[in-house]
Amino acid sequence: MAGKKTQKTRCVHVNVGKGYDILIREGILSYAGEETAKVCPKAVKAAVVCDGNAFVPHGGPVEGDLWDAGLSCAQYILEPGEQNKNIGHYAEILAFLAENRLTREDCLVALGGGVTGDMAGFAAATYLRGISYVQIPTTLLAMVDSSVGGKTAIDLPAGKNLAGAFCQPSLVLCDPLTLKTLPDDVFRDGCAEVIKYGVLYDRDFFLKLKALAETDRTGQSLKQKLAKDLEEIIETCVSFKRNVVEQDEFDRGERKKLNLGHTFGHAIEHCSHYGQSHGSAVAAGMAIMARAAVRKGYMDEADARLLEETLQLYGLPVTTAYPAQQLAEAAMSDKKSSQYAIDLVVPRSIGNCELVRIETKDLQDWIEAGLAW
Ligand code: GLY
């Protein structure tokens, strides 16, 4: 790749399992074949699992690029949407891999958003007891969160991500140019996860995000305001995630902090029957948690208000109309919660959060404390 590209490729190396690179650069998608062949040197075939949204702009070029790199290629196209992250489509992907006679030396390429990456990753983790896979996320949310760290999963009727495996990819390619065609609301969804990293780990990064959204350039969309900083923003976020995953690959401690806003966010998604998007639910969940943290004496009001203001600058919601009791019940129906206790990620200030274990009977009280000022 060096020599062909004048612009610098940002590289974040993740040192877990065999180790892998996250490469970030505008235009990196045109090197998908070359980069895949480098990390899967014995592969003869590449199975591309692609969601319908990513297929139209990117499916053809990525497939062509894989062929050019000497990999024979077949594509499985997945209907977009969380409702498709199910055992039926997972079984179809496995059948597709088998029909195309992929061997352990071949590889899978996941091209699309978080649903595609999670499900294709789980298929790669389990087909022939595991084959290599490459993540090519095409949404901001997938770039900064789900494509990194090896959490692969499908949903079961009883809840989200209830069957899955920890299985690290061999490579992640993030091309910010793919975000140009994203609908604004899907882009904003990813911004919620970006803001989350600022709240968790870095006040200056958070303030920079706020300043970028505040920039008064008449007529510019949020995406345009962020455009020239996107590579750096993605690099910053995946570097935070890398640090966490290297410390706690299997989600026993520090990694749980990445769930900031998610306990209440998942409850909102559940109450909306998944009509409300993940990122917007997480944004509301973070704001609810911040107000609750103020009421419970963990955080200053000024920081909670700063978070609210920033989320609103990004066009994200800061509360929900669902009542606390319904949200608490939804949070407890998450089969990953213990019956007696739940770990909340509670902000102390912007840039510093801690895990607080509460009894589940107190969950509704926390939600009530945070729904409004
Ligand atoms: N999405 C949270 C994690 O990877 O742990």
Highest CATH level, the class of the largest domain: Mainly Alpha
What is the chain-wise order of helices and strands? EEHEHEHEHEHEEEHHHHHHHHEEH
Quickly give the CATH architecture of the largest domain. Answer: Up-down Bundle
Poorly predicted runs: none
The name of the CATH topology of the largest domain is Dehydroquinate synthase-like, alpha domain
Number of helices: 14
Q: What value does the Rg take, in angstroms?
A: 20 Å
Number of E-type strands: 11
The strand line-up of the biggest sheet is: 1-2-9-6-5-3-4
Bound molecules: glycine
Q: Alpha-carbon distance between the termini? A: 53 Å
How many domains, as an integer?
A: 2
The structure class reads alpha/beta
Q: Round the mean pLDDT to the nearest integer and report it.
A: 94
Sheet having the most strands: 7 strands, mixed
Write down the overall geometry.
globular
| The CATH homologous superfamily of the largest domain | Dehydroquinate synthase-like - alpha domain
Percentage of residues assigned to helices: 40-55%
